[in-house]
Amino acid sequence: MAEPSRCSPITVSDVQQLVQRKEEIEAQIKACYELLEGQKGVGMHEPLVDAEGFPRADIDLYQVRTARHNIICLQNDHKALMKQVEEALHKLHAREKEKHAKDEAEALAEAMSQNQTLPQPFAKVNAVTPGSPASVSGLQVDDEIVEFGSVNANNFQNLQNIATVVQHSEGRPLSVTVVRGGRRVHVGLTPKRWAGKGLLGCNIIPLQR
Length: 209
Description:
By secondary structure, the chain is an alpha+beta fold.
């Protein structure tokens, strides 16, 4: 199997091929050991001569020598391949980590880009009474107000601006735009008398910028 080019990035497929090659070498080593075992249990270091120094006649010397030589070569190949597998896994992990960091950076950049396109909020809803006009309209606690009728970040001075708009819009729907969870949300709010205090039933506080 051709070793993956050092210039091209390591892929999962490359690692799988290296592991497959490793398993093939391990199978070959096992086969060589089994061959030695079949030769009267001769291992890697048992003498191949008899007590008088003559070549042993009870075993196939050529087969034994070939098997021993192959085992040494295969073990060296196996050691080198294990290093390749380790390096490939390390590169793959580093690339995944780099990709994850890049994805996070892109997501952050996109979020920041969205925030830049969102209008500037000038006030925030910090309480909504159940059953009130504000509650019925869908206003929620922590909604940041960017438009309240004719009031926006450019002309907002204090909460009296909102109170004035509310008083002049009693019984008529007001267009309110808020930022909720990083998204712009439009709400139709009709100030009117209800069982509780005021015409809205929510508490609004100015945002300190």
